[in-house]
Structure formats: C-alpha cells, structure tokens
Amino acid sequence: MKSLIIATMLMLSVNVGAQPSIDTLSVAAPIDTAQTNKENKLVIDLDFLTRGELRKGGLSNEEGADDQTTFVIARTLLGIGYQRPGLIAHATAQHSGVWGSNETNSFNIYEAWVDLNTKNGFFAKVGRQSLSYDDQRIFGSDDWAMTAMSHDALKLGYEGHGHKLHVIGAFNQNIANIDGGTYFTGGLQPYKAMETVWYHYDVKKIPLGISLLFTNIGMQSDKEHKDTCTFQQQLFGTYIDYHTKKFTAEAAFYYQAGKEEHGIPIDAWMASGKVTYKHNDDLTLYGGYDYLSGDKNFAVPAQGQIGMPQHKRVRGFSSIYGSHHKFYGAMDFFYLSNYYGGFTPGLQNIYLGTKYSPVKKLSIDLSYHYLLTATQLNNDVNKSLGHEVEAAVTYKLMKDASLSAGYSFMRGTDTMVALKRTNNNRQLQWAWIMLSVSPKLLSTIW
After folding, report:
1. What residues have CB less than 8 Å from 353, skipping those under 6 apart?
2. Domain locations in the chain?
3. Coil, helix or strand for 24?
4. How many CA atoms lie within 13 A of 435 on its CB side?
5. Domain 113-435 belongs to what architecture?
6. pLDDT for 121-174, tens place per residue?
C-alpha cells in the first residue's frame, strides 16, 4: 500500500508529450503550390513525455530479492522539418532518462535524414530514420520505450498506383575501428549489416492490403574479433489487412532462419490474427491470438542447481526491431525481459478487449489476456503462464495534450514462478500515469 501511494504521487508528476506517433514529428505536410505559389515549408515542433510507473513482480530474480520498483521517466523531442519540391529534410534531437539519475548517453539524435523524391513516385531516403511497417510487429518506432528506435540506413523506393516497394540497406561500424578492421561491438542497433525489402499492395475495388517482408541481418560473434565471424539470419513473411467501415481483420505470418550470433541455426516462426468490430464511434470490440514458437527441451534448473540443456537449434521467435509494447500484454514480461537462463519457451497470447468512449475526449480500453508457453517445459508444470487483465484511460485535455493512466494485474502460475525464479510472479502488478504535450512551435511557408 505504501508503494502504491508513493507511486501515485510520483506518477502525478507532469507527463508531457501527447504520445503521437513520433514517426510524424516535424515531417512537413505536402505543399499545395497551386494555392500558395510558395515552394518552401518549415515546421518546428516539440514533444514532451513524462511517465510514472509502479511495477511489482515479473522479472527474473532469485528468491528473497525485492522484485518491485517505482520511478518516473521522461523524454523530450525537438524536431525540425523542411520541404520543397523534390526534397524533404528532417532532424529530431532526443533526451530521455529517469528522474534524479545522472545517466550517460541520455541525449542523442533520434532522426536526421534527407529524402530526395520525384513526381512519379521514386525516392531515396538516407540517414538516421525510423523504420515502421504494417502493424509494427517486426519493424516499429517502439515509442513507449522512451528511447525510440531508429536506424542508420539508406532506403530506396517507389510508391504509386497502389504499389509500395522499399529496399533498405545498413552497415554499422565503430569509429575507433576505422583503421582496425570492420568488427562492430554494438551501437545504435546491434547488427553489423541489415538488408530489407518490403512490398505492399492495396487491392483495387476491395479494402484489402497485402504486405511481403524479407530481411537479412548480419550479427557478429562475440567470441572472435574477426570479419569472417558474421552470421546471417533471415526473416520473411506476410501481413494482410482487410477492412471495411465497421470490420477489420488482420493476419500475419513470419519465419526465421539462418544462424544467430553464436552460429547456432535458427528455426523459428510466429503467426497472429486479430479481428476488430467498430459498433459505432463510441464502442469498438476486438480479439485475437498470437503464437510465437519456443525452444524445445526447455528446462529451468531447480533452485541452487546450475546448467541448461544445449540447444542445437534456436526455435524461439524474435520480433527483432518491432514495437514490442504493443503486443503480448502491456506488462512486457515476456519479450522485453528474459526468462531465467536466456532461452525462451515461446508464447501464446489469447486476448479480448473493448474500447469505449462514454463522453467526448475520454476513452477507456479494457482487455483480458490468457498467456501460455508455446512448448512444454521439462519441469512438472503445464504451459499456462496466467491470466492478465488491463485497463487504460485517456483524456484529451486539449488539441496537443492528453492525460492517460493504466493498471494491469496478472495472476501467475507455477510455470511463471519457475520461469522467472521468484514467488512474486504469482501476484504481478503494474500501474502508470502519463501526460503528453506536443506543441507545434513554428510552421511557415515562403
């Protein structure tokens, strides 16, 4: 109770930054030269976000440890965007950190890119940029994490006549190794090199969109500092979205192959489906199912024992650079925090929910999740991880500010206790409150 009171006081601290998608921050809107006869546009805007959180249980821990915490985190984005025919330039500075801490590297450039484009739909975008595709399961900005995800990359593409084709390439290097080989020890993203192709087609006459995604990621081994120790892993799959005025159906399937950074072969996959029904502007119902494959022969040693089985193949699916908080329950206990021992038994997520707006500017989101592992553990426990209920409320204070709060509770099972190594996982709780404000400081054309 004391922790909850402290958390509530902290959470009431200002949370500025209306949680818009930061992919759109400072990006200039298309110029209507026919009406203005002006070709240049400049936009400067600011995004403040502060969130207080209370968490109890859910992380891997030893018996007797205090698996709970209360803190306040904040993020500030300052963006500037310039546009004229054939050119868009964009830069965003980002600062994030926990209140009261003196963290290093809390300030960085989140985005800095230029986009050269033609009237017939071809473009080249180069620099530090956010990659966000489809439902953001594989590539997303991961806005909730407070240090939004971006990539140093070159993107070439075409968009027109219902077709979208993006080809992306990235190559990472440590500045200290300019004359010492090409071994990469990790930075903005952990990969050494990445190549991605994304194609999307909107079917004419029916509200159907189909996407195909292929990505190859080169991960360097941490065992030897040699250029030849780069292992390639691949992911390919599809995302389908069918939508009418009241009904939306989404489905996705992805398969992973190749080798991870230690040279172990990968054989993993995931599938998902979601259905949404919009009864009216005030009421929406949704439900779905996620399946992410897991490592076979998964075992957690008993308390005091050491050792894990050797895996000849990695079968645990990784959603790599997606917006993880958006999926698998808001408590983030399964794909943002590891199980004891490092491997994963996979995950099944069965969920139902509703979004309701009882009055103007106020929205309520209620959901239920039944969570299970994908593979059977060797221990004498079943696949069930537990039941999770969630509630989130958002109130729009003004056009560029909103206040939101949420609470999640999960009743963990013996399986959850075995995987996370703490009895705190029988009663898991998470509460948060957030205020976000995103004012536009300047918008001018000439």
Report:
1. 285, 286, 287, 365, 366, 367, 368, 390
2. 113-435
3. helix
4. 9
5. Beta Barrel (2.40)
6. 999 999 999 999 999 999 998 888 777 789 999 999 999 999 999 999 999 987
